[in-house]
Amino acid sequence: MAVRGEKLEVRLSQVLAKLFIAMTLMLLLASFVVVFYWLNKPESFLFKKIELVNQLENQKADELQKVAEKSVEAGFFSLNVADFTQKLQYQLPWVKSVSVKKIWPNKLRIFIIEHKPIVRWISVEENKNELLSNDLIWVKNYQLLSDQAIVFRPNLTIKQKEKFSQLVLLFGTENSAKKVLSECLAMNKKLMTIGLGIQQCGINKRRTWSIILVLKNGKNIDIKLGKDKIMQKLERFIKIFSGQLKTYINFAQYVDLRYSNGFSIKWNKHDYLQSISKEQE
Questions:
Q1: In this structure, what DSSP letter does residue 242 have?
Q2: Handedness of CA 128, 129, 131, 136 (dihedral sign)
């Protein structure tokens, strides 16, 4: 009987020990849930300072501050950094990339890399008008094109509009920005060797290439290149220009290089007659 009683006591002790462990684990789990819930409440550990690491050139700081403050209503633990980063990139067109770091206990550190615009951009599919010879008809509704061929449309200040209105204007179809930028930069490099610069360059809805050049007297001339072999045709123009055309280029309205071998020129008779009249005086 004594042995049986001892075994019963041992079993009872084991049961109580297991029950104690189970209750302890349940208590710890409950405590963890409560603490986790409390830490992730929006009002817990609110951010008191938003720190911008780098100086921004074009992105307005007040816009960034406004978007950031609205997005960080969540606390230190409840803020989803990935979602917050995505919001900044979506709502601030100037932002190329952003890095966000939470600093304990209430600071948010932001590092932003901006797009670097090198030209203006017009999507021909968003505009009903076609590009007309020597007509700058899209200067008000342009977007910007970065050095990485990324098209973006920021809200420009008056100073920024004045600044970027001096950039070369490229135009093209949807998803052609990278190709247009590459081809136009290459063409501009060739044209600079003869003292000419591109003012407009691109491809229209019919996939036809054309460029508008700025002459030394400030006038423009339209160069029609067609759909293919545009670099070969540009080389033909450079050869023509280096010869006799250089003397009379100021009187040309456009040069058509869409032919297989030759070219045609439309002359501005009014400018030519004016020039002769001045010489006779």
A1: I
A2: negative
What's at 47, amino acid-wise? F
Q: Which two tokens stand for residue 133?
A: 């010879």
pLDDT, tens only, 55-93? 889 988 888 888 887 767 777 777 888 888 988 888 999
- For 66-70, 138-142, 196-200, 207-211, which range has the lowest pLDDT when averaged over its residues? 138-142
Cα 277–chain centre separation: 50
Contact call for residues 52 and 60 (beta carbons, < 8 A): no
Q: Which pTM was predicted?
A: 0.77
Cα separations in angstroms, 10 against 6, 20, 98, 150, 171: 6, 15, 64, 76, 88
> What tokens does 266 get?
């439309």
- pLDDT above 50 (res 218): yes
138-156 exposure pattern, b = at least 16 Cβ within 10 A, e = fewer? beeebbbbbeebbbbebee
Q: Which residue has the tokens 């090198």?
A: 118
CB under 8 Å to 82, separation ≥6 — which residues?
Answer: none
Higher pLDDT, 13 or 183: 183
Q: Does pLDDT of 33 surpass 60? A: no
What domains can you pick out in the chain, each with its CATH number? Answer: 49-114 (3.10.20.310), 117-280 (3.40.50.11690)
Amino acid (one-letter) located at 86 = Q
